[in-house]
Amino acid sequence: LLFPVSNLCGKCRPRDTDLLQPSLNFLYWSLHQTTPCSQQRAVAVLLSNVSLLELLQKVLECTWLWSPPSRAAYLSPEDALLCSGWLLVASLLLYQHRYNTEVHQTLSVDLTEVLNAVIFRNKKPILLLVSIMQFLRAILRQNFSSSLLVIVGQNTAPSATQPQPSSLQDTALHPLAMQQVFSLVVSLQNLLVHKDLLLSQAVVACLETLVEYLYVKNQDVALHVASQPWHRFLLFTLLSGGQKSFLQPEVLRLMTLFVRYQSSNIISQKEISQIIQEAAEANIAELSEATSCALHLFLSQV
Q1: Which domain of life is it from (predicted)?
Q2: Contacts for 295 with CB less than 8 Å, ≥ 6 apart
């Protein structure tokens, strides 16, 4: 089925949402729900289809061309198609790297546009934000060096006009710039305050991947980002309201991040003890799978 469905996609235009939406979802499902052996073959089939990749290129570009709806919570057919496109491309990046699959056609993405989509949001629905963050995680994990992707944008070529105080750091973090990193971190913090479960999971995962990328590039910058005082206020905000327990997946994963990068000004021995005490008193069997996994990672990190 991959052959006819992917060929069908290649004959469509981005405006053919009624046909493309289920087709791209089928391709995405096929990549994730098959066996490892079949998965490698599926990736090869999709990456050998030049017309499909050209269609995906057009779909991604429509993210910046289509006007957002008046209500951010409303997911239009166009936005739903964009979600499917970003998620499928993120998956192709992941599996192409895993299996070192031959690439017949590259995709081009403007890094500045991707970052600005998260930083400024601009009325984008939550599901579209989550999809773009999945893509951002994929390119961060691959150090912006995927053979499937060409990164363009104002920071992809070092410029002599960069401000001198941050030029060395910008060079180390290339193609990211320090200002983009801090703007992205602040935006991710603000998105966490929404306390939407799907959004929170995506934001924390994106923050984890970003700090990992920074740590490889420049440890001082990574530790500086992880120890920002605003993170502590963010934790208090997440713990406010009806559910004050530390045993929330996003809180546990944030705590794990701060422990990993030794941000003692964000998480103290007192908080660590509180989490361990709550875990000792909790009925482990009643915890959700997400909470159990997050608790396991936290305790292992401690």
Answers
A1: Eukaryota
A2: 247, 252, 279, 287
